Amino acid sequence: NGYLEGSNGLFRNGGGEFGVDGTFSIGGSRVDGGEEINAVITMASFPTSNIRTAFGLEEGYLIDGPATGEVRLYGPYGGMFGYGQVVLDQPTAYGEPIDTASAGLRFEGSGVRLDGFEMRKGTGTVTGAAFIGWDASYVFNWDVRDLEVNAVDSIPAPPEPLSGVANFNIAGVGAFDNPRYEIRGTVVDLFVGEEEIGQVTASLNVRDGLLTVNLEGASSTLAVSATGQVEMTDMLADVRVRVTNASLAPYVRMFDPRLSPYTSAVVSGAARIQGALQADRVRIDATIEQADLTLLEYDLHNDGPIELRLDGQVIDIDRLRLVGEGTALDLSGSVDLATDALALDMNGDANLSILRGLVPDLRGSGVAQLRTRLAGTFAQPELVGQAALLNGRIRHIGLPHGLEAINGRVVFEQGSLRFDDIPAVMGGGAVTIGGRVGLAGAELQELAITLTGREMQWRYPVGFRSLVDANLVLRGDAAAPVLAGTIDVLDANLLEGLDLGTGLFSGDEAGPALDLSEVATSVVPLALDIRVVAPSSLRMTSNAIRVVASADLTVQGTYDQPQLFGSADMESGEAFFEGLRYPLNYGTISLANPNKIEPFVNVEVETDVRVPGQTYRVTVQATGSTDDQFILTFLSDPPLPEVDVIGLLLGDVRDPQSADLRAARSPELAQQQRMQASAARFLTSSLSSGVGRVVEESFGVDSFQITPSLGDPSSQQSAQLNPTARVLIGQRISDRAHLTLSRAISGANSDLIVVLEYDQSDRLAWILSQNEDRTYALDFRVRHAF
Fold first, then answer.
1. Structural domain boundaries in the chain
2. With contact defined as beta carbons under 8 Å apart, do 168 and 188 qualify?
């Protein structure tokens, strides 16, 4: 047996170096008992896989990475002694990446001892000691501190990241071919995403090929425990799990974010896991003792234990019964996870309030009696059966009306959903719903839903009360549906009408506006193609205006941006302003702007104004769009300057023929009087109109108005403010006769004015009046169209 002596030997492998300086016995063991090795070995980023191969440690020592350090070895090859230090930079230990690892080495003949062992991963540290025998035995004791669980790559990643800090101890004594070790520790503040699991305490004991598990977790809302054993060779398990107050919805939402945030499910129960831990061989028997489900404000809970079983990748639902207010549902059947095949039966009563959990803006009540079966696959489910609706009510919060008293049958067929002419009520009128909806799995396809309604009372548009018949159809693809049909308006009344007396005291109140464009945004681009026909059925009624009109309109565009086209003709009407009655000569409203709903108005009214010794026929014309200022034209017969005509309409009862003379004598006085009249009406119009409404409702008169003035209009010359007012009471005696009583509260002339107007026909009218000077007049009016 000779020796090989090496001095400053250096081997390179890639970027690593392995240095040797010493004496080595040639030919194996020495017969003379002499030293077989006495050398110093140095390493710089040298692969540990080469070292394992050199020492015959390929099995059981699965640690790879670049090693740096120095070791002194001496003695026989089979029982070396020595010492040293080694550091591994970013190694991999049994598949888990590590930042750094270091240890002092003491070779003791039968093995190597690791002193001062330290390993780092993220913020976590592992410290301890170990002994590895050349006979494949081991002894170790390691402490793990502040290890973030989301940094451990060997933990399967859930849909949402894990968070928490682990502290545990690992200790074992055994052989690599029959490992024996125990893990005891705690994970604090364990979260899955934003869901708290809390503090988890675990004990894992591996002995004689058997893993014994004891685990407990608890938080302010959840408790979970697991006990059992797993046979390590064939991975055969027998583990029992119990959960209390476990919230399932957040975990379901991790896999399907479409689940409503207002849906929750809290369960308590137990499960037993048996058999090989393989998807096609494991068996799980679960019993849910308590289940509380909430869909928005609707609550469901189980009636009796829920029994589930997973065997051979098939989930069998042996018993599942859910009850709630107006709900009692039984679900049974199976789901094949290997083929995605569905075979589920759902029978019982479901309260329609549950719809709110599926569509948050939908409100429902009543009962649906279900007799259905879900077949097909997850990708292409097929729902067959029927749902009988009993006294149902469904309403979208963005619409003024809903469907009530729904009593009928919805039939689920292969590839479609059919409405069997379901009777219902909308706005007090009878409605029938029919048609079908095409289905491709769970996706809506072609729509053909009809709605026929008779004598429905609608509160739409804002301010209107309408009685309508409707024949509507929702057709087209579900991704771009079209609502079409005809609405026949039997009667539509704008209750508030137009308030001609708004003034300084009106505050923030605004009259009703016909504005179809201000609607809630729709998720689905619903197109509109609806014709609205109103033959002499549009009415505007208030203390100031009465109008009857006909309209033929078309609603197009979309639900979000509707377009309104057509025209409305005012057939008859009258207005009351400042004590004067204005019969309608003609009036039209046209809509032709495709960019916005902009009515264009063209209307003409006339009235008779009586002053001592003269009656004036005044005609007022108004044209323009509602978005712009109206163009007003004032004409009189006998003719007067426009400013004097306006003065007549505002109550200046002095002879207009002498207006020019009064203005020439005192122009400041004339201007002051007109400003006084306008200011008085502006300051008090809203207040007086409110009083008028109270008197009309209390005493049953058609109109009551107070016309204020800061000067006495009967006074010929006055520069002083002399507040006064005139009270006007109007009463329609019949469709053709109207009586007006007017009297000044104070002033030089406070006699009663009485006007009786009688429309003998559409062309001939008689007017009998008593004037302030106690004279009487009989006039007649003849209308002739040229």
1. 1-135, 527-782
2. no
